[in-house]
Amino acid sequence: MVHDDFIFFMRLQVLPRRKEHPEHIRLDGREGGGSRTEFGAYRHYGVVWKVDEDTRYEPLIFAYNAAVTGEDPFVEVETQTGHGRRLLLNEDLTRRYASRFKYLYIYSS
User: Fold this and answer.
1) What is the pLDDT along the chain (109 residues), one digit of tens a residue?
2) Where are the domains of the chain?
3) How many CA atoms lie within 13 A of 108 on its CB side?
């Protein structure tokens, strides 16, 4: 299912999972390792974006809190390989987000 926007994605898929498993730091419940398995998808900037299940809750919640106030929490950038696009937290949220790692794996599908 592709949600209409990021806020619906968070409210219908991410936040219920977080409430069910508050001890988890990632969508998949693991503590490490990579995963290209899709957890869910939503539309943003007229594009469908897939969120990988190794994404951590914390940056998603930062983005959600900004989005519900009307702020666009994301910037769209090229992937490191140059073979696609990804979303990162905007500059203001990045400054407020304590981790030096992104832990946010959202890619154009």
Assistant:
1) 899 999 999 999 999 999 999 999 999 998 877 778 999 999 998 999 999 999 999 999 999 999 999 999 999 999 888 779 999 999 999 888 777 668 999 999 7
2) 2-108
3) 15
Helix (H) or strand (E) holding 37: none
Strands 85-89, 47-52: pairing is unpaired
**Burial category of 41 from C-beta neighbours within 10 Å (exposed 0-12, middle 13-18, buried 19 and up):** middle
User: What are the helix (H) ranges across 2-81?
Assistant: 6-9, 15-20, 57-67
Does pTM top 0.85 for this prediction? Answer: yes
* Residues 28, 39: Cα–Cα separation, whole Å: 8
* Residue 64 near residue 7 (C-beta atoms within 8 A): yes
